[in-house]
Amino acid sequence: MTPRVAIIGAGFGGLCMAIRLEQAGIRSYTIFEKAGSPGGTWRDNTYPGAGCDIPSHLYSYSFEKYGSWTRRYPGQREILGYLEHCTDKYGVRPKIRFDTEVTEAAFDGSRWQVTASGVTEAFDVLVVAVGQLNRPRLPDIPGMDDFAGASFHSARWDHSHDLTGRRVAVIGSGSSAAQLIPPVARQADRLEVFQRTPNWVIPKPDAVFGLPARLAFRFVPGLQRAYREYIYRYAEATLYPALARGWSEGLLRRRALRHLRKQVEDPELRARLTPDYPPGCKRVIIDSRFYPALNRPNVDVVTDKIVRITEKGVQTTEAVHEVDTIVYATGFRTTEFLTPMRVTGRGGVDLAERWAGGAEAYLGIATPGFPNMFLLYGPNTNLGHNSIIFMLECQVNHVMNCLPHLSGGRRLEVRQEVMDAWRRRLDEALEHMVWGDGCRSWYKTAEGRVTNNWPGSTMLYRRLTSMPPRAAYREV
Ligand code: N01
């Protein structure tokens, strides 16, 4: 009997899982989606300027070549359009239960009891594809409720609020801030950017695909595949080594400092924008519009410590900055994987409690005590240098390889000794990467454990996830 599969989340991961099941002729699956449409983070992040810093042809499924990309790096709307297109083309949409949030998944000794919108249903297999960047993190600054103007998080943009002629504060200077600051600076009367830590920034060689290029991508056989392969290998060969401890100091630092010198003339501003930690420790920003926006006469970069939010604006150690609007570009709750959903495994073990010291899973996919549960974009599978869609496809491939062992009510659980060996291997590999080196980032827990990033090459990950899974698992 084919297992019944519950997929949680209709973003890039959950849709990929569903499409591969469809392609294999397995229709006994349901996708639970808390929102009213597919797209995950690309549905939620609609701030002005939202887009991707990975090229379009790589930031897409390998099996779905798309002839409609209009530029080298895709904008949010284009990516969302691609996901909508895939949802319909592969017949997945009727299988999505929209506006249905899973609050609990409990293993009852033989099956998974999935509770969504108050209704509980049994499934044989649970695939959790909720992503790492799905829950906005508002900062904990005193007085935030006192502010009399409009305020919102970058991932919950208030499109009814017109910024024209307003005094705006943007708190945060990560990838989201870097993308939204240029359009906001053009529209607002004044913009104050509150930067706690500067980021390393390298150029984004974006370009519109002219008609000849678009026609060529659409009609020349093999061109999309060859181009995708080229950009994939380029990122792997140049950016991945640059994230190794010591190495980032060469290539990345030189490239970023040259970009800063070229784009920012004022030496005082340049000094404020120069990081004092190794490049790559935090996610490197890939953008060519951010610095020019900061040069504008109506934009200020404030580096004084924020003390509180008042009724009128942002109070720092030096001054009160009166504003009409505050945008919190303060990131996501990235280390609290799967929360607020409650997940309990064999013997009622609570996953959140198990992961209290930091989330971990074999291949980022499976965890002992939680039979037939697979994670997509789980712990230690994020990348700082290449396409996450590549990683998702590897994970889905692994789940597909497990599925034949799960028919007829059988259950697989990753062996504890395999998990322990995996953790040791991971810790050793993480030692060689730059992420631990003197910076705060969303890649790690407050205690400094890197729970989000994959330290190996993506080629190694593909090899590990495509190995026959049986030896790593035991039947329970
Ligand atoms: O979030 P972030 P993001 N007071 O966590 C600051 C992906 N993404 O939404 O560095 C003052 O990076 C915080 O300061 P500090 C991409 O992977 C991709 O920008 O902690 N400031 C930081 O500056 C990215 O890495 C694309 O000192 C506070 C900022 O807020 C990830 O999403 C586009 C503060 C948060 O930066 C997250 O990016 C956009 C406080 N209390 C995003 N608390 C692509 O192009 C936080 N900050 C693919």
TrEMBL record:
<dbReference type="InterPro" id="IPR051209">
    <property type="entry name" value="FAD-bind_Monooxygenase_sf"/>
</dbReference>
<protein>
    <submittedName>
        <fullName>NAD(P)/FAD-dependent oxidoreductase</fullName>
    </submittedName>
</protein>
<dbReference type="InterPro" id="IPR036188">
    <property type="entry name" value="FAD/NAD-bd_sf"/>
</dbReference>
<dbReference type="Pfam" id="PF13738">
    <property type="entry name" value="Pyr_redox_3"/>
</dbReference>
